[in-house]
Amino acid sequence: MTDQAAQSNRHFATDVVRTLVDAGFEALWAGGCVRDMLLGKTPKDYDVATNATPQEVRKLFGHRRTLAVGASFGVIIVLPPRDSEAEQIEVATFRTEGPYEDGRRPTQVVFATAEEDAQRRDFTINGMFFDPIEDQIRDYVGGQQDLKQKIIRAIGLPAARMEEDKLRLLRAVRFAANLDFTLDPETADAVLRMSSQLSVVSVERIAAEFRRMLANEHRRRALELCDDLKLLDVILPEVRSEPDPHKWSEMLDMLHQLDVDSFEPAMALLLTMLPLEVQPASAIRFPEQKPDDRQDVAEICRRLKLSNEENDRIVWLAGRLSLLQNVEDLTRAQVRRLLAHPDSEALLQMAIAQRTVREEPLEPIEQLIWERAETPLEELSPAPLLTGGDLISLGMQPGPEFKDLLDDLRDMQLEGEIDSREAAVEWVRGR
């Protein structure tokens, strides 16, 4: 987010509060934006809480600038002016909530005061309000103290908060890990006792939290907490079925060393714990292609309902890391095919993490990193010298041998043995 966009968001959030206050309502920033602000971070978005009802909010801002996406729960979206870079803002009426029958949504909502609203929220660090007009914090739950002491604590009875929305079991771990905070013992105990109930949460919501854990620099601690609190048994039972504690500890060390702040390389590295069958020759010869020998990884990605792009990236990364364990055995063509892949940089960082933990030489991978950075893509992966159409024009009959012939020619081109169309034609005619 640019500084201009961040400033626009803050100004718009302040204007929304001011508009409500000028109309005689109480209005405050709420939740994560207050937490981030107190941590010295720039909030990515702002939520506003008010005693105005959804109908009053829409009347005040106008129907054209509002969306009643969650009006039954007291939530209205207020849109920014057309010429603004600001993001839309969620305006929610102070409320208390009835029983949660599906582990996610309350059966009823009752409009309430700011203090009562704070009591329904998940963790103390997320339960604070801020008045941007008076520059004043409203803290009814001890959130400021827990921020200072770096504690993640459920508001009220931890089991009751987790019962309302089972995803909070995982959110407690994410906040503790990503912020490098400590889980309050009573909150941790509730997570452990209720961990199996995470299974009632949709896999999409679980995957969203898991993405944010693995994309963070504290991913090792997140996984340790998930393991200690038995959440990993629900999320990735295949990984936790690994009986070798040394292998698990080694993997955690690798994830800590991984110098990539994105989800897919971390997930791929984690899933390389799963045993790999013998790779088919095609997987070694054509490393730029999606491997078909990691169907176990692909199945996990599908079960978590990851996007097709995430699935493809994770399967490729998990399937190709083993090639770099014996990089000196790769041919020149294989190296160039590998380095031309758009995810090769992430793969090389995975190999660095792996070799660092295993105290293996880094020089072979560092050489590939240098080569990738210094070699233009069109040199790593030049246009093919001949196509299937060219073979037909040379009088060859289409058939299965076409692919083998073109693959062999491509290897020779990447090895530097054939570097012109004329030489390629001569080679084909000599076959």
Features of the shown structure:
single chain, 431 residues, alpha+beta, Beta Polymerase, domain 2, Hydrophobic Seed Protein, seven-stranded mixed beta sheet, two-stranded antiparallel sheet, 24 helices, 9% strand, elongated, tRNA binding
Distance between the termini: 58 Å
- Spatial shape: elongated
Please outline the major beta sheet: 7 strands, mixed
CATH superfamily of the largest domain, please?
Beta Polymerase, domain 2
Pfam family, one: PolyA_pol_RNAbd
Keywords: Magnesium, Metal-binding, Nucleotide-binding, Nucleotidyltransferase, RNA-binding, Transferase, tRNA processing
Organism: Calycomorphotria hydatis
GO biological process, one term: tRNA processing
Compact summary:
With 431 residues, this protein is α+β, with helices and mostly antiparallel strands. The protein has 24 helices and 11 strands.
Provide structural commentary:
52% of the residues lie in helices and 9% in strands. By secondary structure, it is of the alpha+beta class. The chain has helices spanning 3-22, 32-38, 54-61, 114-119, 143-149, 158-164, 168-178, 185-194, 203-214, 219-228, 232-235, 237-240, 245-257, 263-271, 281-285, 295-303, 308-320, 332-339, 344-358, 363-374, 377-380, 388-393, 401-415, 421-429; strands spanning 27-30, 47-50, 66-70, 75-78, 89-93, 95-97, 109-111, 129-131, 136-138, 151-152, 182-183. Helix 13 packs across helix 19 and helix 16 (295-303) packs antiparallel against helix 17 (308-320). It has 4 domains: 1-149, Beta Polymerase, domain 2, CATH 3.30.460; 154-235, Hydrophobic Seed Protein; 244-381, no CATH class; 388-429, no CATH class.
